[in-house]
Amino acid sequence: MKKRIAAALCALLLAVNLIPAASALPGEQTLAADKLNTLGLVNGTGSGYDLDRSATRAEAVTLIVRLAGGEQSAASGSYHAPFTDVPAWAQADVSYAYACGWAAGTSETTFSPSRTVSADEFFTFLLRILGYQDSNGDFVPGEAALFARHIGLSTVTSYSTFTRGDLFEAMLSALTFPKKGGTQTLLDGLMAKGLVSQAAANALGLTSESLTARQIADRCSSAVFFMECYATDYYRDTNTTSSTSSGFFITSDGIAVTNYHSIDGMAYANITLITGEKYPVEKVLYYDAGEDIAVLRISTLSTAGERTSAFAFLPMVSSDTVRNGDVIYAIGSPLGLQNSVTSGVVSSCSRTIEGFSIPVIQNTASISIGSSGGALFNEFGQVIGITSAYLIYGNNMYLAVPMDPVLRADLSVPGKTLEQVKNIEKTKSDAA
């Protein structure tokens, strides 16, 4: 049974890599502006938001200071900048942002406050207040918007223009995005200082632990990837894909999870992020054919020769937290259609199925060929399982391997290459 399932999910297919590039609709931007207005972070209503107009650098920095909770400190007048072209209304905020290292001038004495702010400039400001530093190689300022998408801060891969509407959406996303290396958010800081009302944040759903399907997609898709595997040197060298599947990161430095059957018999593999960036699989840190789990280390050097400082990653929880009837969501790449989202419920949190050495999670979140290795989430955005298989003769009967073996595994080991694993397993098979 397991072999039939694995064969179905590993069948050859022509992968289609779809990368979203369009900005959100104006209605979404109005909603973002309204939420920020309710929190006291932006002014205006309706047409007064000027959503279609590009923001200036001075406006952008003023909003950044407000988002970081620094408006009162800026108003103290204790900070100074060398710029001679900043208008009086923005002087305090620009000086404060400059002193904090969030914004720089366009020359030693000019800030160019009336120049429109680009997406890369604004995301550079955002990343800096979130604790990322371009000075130590966290990101490249000229590619800040792409890096923001890469780590899940943004839901847009590229901007043809960058408007105030886009800026408000980015601000709203940044409010609840964890600061680098921790779980604290900008919203936590604003509420702690009494600058944002807890009641208002609650009413807007910004503090709810339970997430909607849309929030799951927005927050988690960047950590899920599409994987292409190659069985031999020839297939790799001719870019002839042997199989395709899915996977997801569980640490920021490149440890990722997929199914064992996704890599079974493969010698090489590359993964593709939602941004289109490709990275090679370096090592296998843990694998078990019976559990159908493989833990990989992904290189931080892309196939294009670009180094990344961090990957978006997902929190994991034990199957002990899963109950029958729980709402769940799956993200993967069925038929190569990257980052497809489905939803359902847990049918059985501990189903014994022939071919699996551990009980699996039976659920109704639809998966297809290519979904293998994708993430199964609870309503809090935590990974509860690895989407692995479906029962061919059943309806809405999908199976996911629980995360418990990964939670217990020693992932500090050097690991083995895919080719080494392939040879080890072939030797075992030949000896059997």
Automatic annotation (TrEMBL):
PROSITE patterns (alphabetical): SLH
Entries under Pfam families matching the protein: Trypsin_2 (PF13365)
SLH domain boundaries: 77-140
Signal sequence, start to end: 1-24
InterPro entries (alphabetical): SLH_dom
One GO molecular-function entry: peptidase activity
Keyword annotations of the record: Hydrolase, Protease, Repeat, Signal
Any GO BP: proteolysis
Record bears the keyword Protease: yes
Protein name from the UniProt record: S1C family serine protease
Organism: Dysosmobacter acutus
